[in-house]
Amino acid sequence: MGQNDRVIENNQPTPQEQLKFLKHIQQILQSGTFTSTYKFALLMSITRLAIEQGQDTGAALRLDYLDIAEKFIDLYWKQSLPFQFSQYEPFIIQQSTGRQAKVISEIQKAQQQFKTIAAARRDSVFWLKLRKSVASTVKQMPVVYLQNLNGQTVEFLYSLEESKQSLKLFPKVMYCLRQFSEIIEELCQKRWIDFVRLNKQNLIVLDGLPDLDEFMFAPSRNQLGQVADFLIDLQQCQCFYCGKSLKNSKYAVDHFIPWSLYPADTGHNFVLVDEKCNSQKSNYLASEHFLQQWLERNHLHDQAITREISQLGFLTDLQRSHRVADWAYKQAIENEYLVWLGGKDKKILTQGY
Ligand SMILES: [Zn+2]
Questions:
Q1: Least C-beta-crowded within 10 Å: which of 258, 315, 325, 326?
Q2: How much distance in Å is there from the Cα of 348 to the middle of ligand 1?
Q3: 171 and 201: one domain?
Q4: How far is the CA of 304 from the centre of ligand 1 (A)?
Q5: Ligand 1 center to residue 344 CA distance, Å?
Q6: Tens digits of per-residue pLDDT, 123-142?
Q7: How far is the CA of 267 from the centre of ligand 1 (A)?
């Protein structure tokens, strides 16, 4: 980061403003007036979009409702499938205290027609229709109620009046969402799980079950086999990190920007690695050397990656992936994260990497 960047960034919120923002988020999540899990999904969706579409400035950001809807479908798809919890019949989680939430019913209809979210996304006409319908629910329900703190509306994220065509985040909100994304994700997931667990309609089946967060929020492994088939050719059967041959070893698809940091699948983020590197890299960011290698690979093979991996149904957009990476490495520098150097070595990432 140079001197010039400092000048551009001068509309950033003050530490006091950032703290107040975080307190507001906490109040939203503690408010006991939820009747569905939409609010969690909305907060997570706008946070992820602030990373994908925004930058580290105090500027306002406009979000398309169709993009928010896409994130909603991503979040709810797996949770809308029947799941075999212990000795009970396959059970679908109730996401609302009353009738099943509308978005869930719509996703369930889609699931009767398409086996995977990837297949649904490939049918562009169907996919747009589903997004439009989810977008309209999002606009009418959680967008209206999200900023209700125990009965009182406090507009600190966006103004409803200005958000008819697209959701317009107030200045400084994008910055705070990007800054606190890991905290917001974790708080939302915890509260979401609590809501589902305590919902009377789920209580009998879910009471005491330990693996709920795995089912609700872990990445889906469904399509990764096919991603691996493509990557093994692209990488000429070599581990992305250590370069050793994958011929006689087990391999895995790794999220280059770790899932723990940014829990969404994007096509360019996948690399194929051997078992050893996979377990050693674990949840760490890879060092700047690997970052360069990843950026180069993506530029060089952008067309093939986009064509092949989007065909498997993943969102595949070079710009979007690289903006997420920019955000992640900036966070790592500011917060002195350890990065993985290969093998057993790690170091703290510093400025000017
Ligand atoms: Zn390796």
A1: 326
A2: 21
A3: yes
A4: 23
A5: 12
A6: 999 999 999 999 999 999 99
A7: 20
